[in-house]
């Protein structure tokens, strides 16, 4: 498991009965998590003294209750700073377990010893984009949600990266890649965090189980002649990390050599000393 254990301002305090107790800077949140299938004693008093809790609805979705939070606040991880805010579907704007991937991205770009161009697809609020830019890369950030791209730009400004060479693109990722192929554009590294399910601008259905392999094949056509890495992250329930690794090996290792690693991401749980699994990541690296 790749564990994001270098946080100072975020902490997963406890996890029990389908929920996580988390410290986000000065604020305590309780949020649901489908991986938390155990019911251990909730001895931390902050289970009853939280600042906000996301409660699921019996009819789907949910809402924030007992909301004692500002509109937004900031949270720093090493040299990066993010804006945090309570949003729909229990989200806060960042996924803290991704910090171990941010470290990998920054270190790999810095260690390349040459200019690096990075394409970040389904880029959300820009954690991986900022990690790549902090390492010195030129980045193309693509997401279909205008609001998420704006939040990513705000995060870049908060991190002192407002003048970094980042292209901010609001577009369907598949359509954008098709145009980049026609334009002959190439990138040294590709990052993607595709959804489990979605619809394209013309009603096309995206289902990760059937769409990811052909999409990854298509995306591989924008890799440069000296590719550095490809990172694929997934939160699709039941998808093993080794499946992501198999996809990367099938398409990239056979073509370019290099090697692939795949693992669950994890966050340490303070109360138990154990780690909560938080999705799957595969990394293909050229060397």
Description:
By secondary structure, this protein is of the alpha/beta class. It has 2 domains: 2-71 and 86-90, Immunoglobulin-like, CATH 2.60.40.1180; 93-285, Vaccinia Virus protein VP39 (Rossmann fold), CATH 3.40.50. Helix content is 25%, strand content 32%. It has 6 helices and 17 strands. It has helices at 99-110, 127-134, 146-158, 173-183, 208-219, 241-256, and strands at residues 2-3, 10-16, 19-24, 27-32, 52-56, 62-65, 73-77, 80-84, 117-121, 138-143, 166-170, 189-192, 197-199, 205-207, 229-234, 259-268, 275-285. An 8-stranded mixed sheet has the order 1-16-17-15-12-9-10-11, sandwiched between helices. The chain has a 5-stranded mixed sheet with strand order 2-3-4-5-6, with no helix packed on it. It is globular and about 55 Å long. The model has no long low-confidence stretch (mean pLDDT 94).
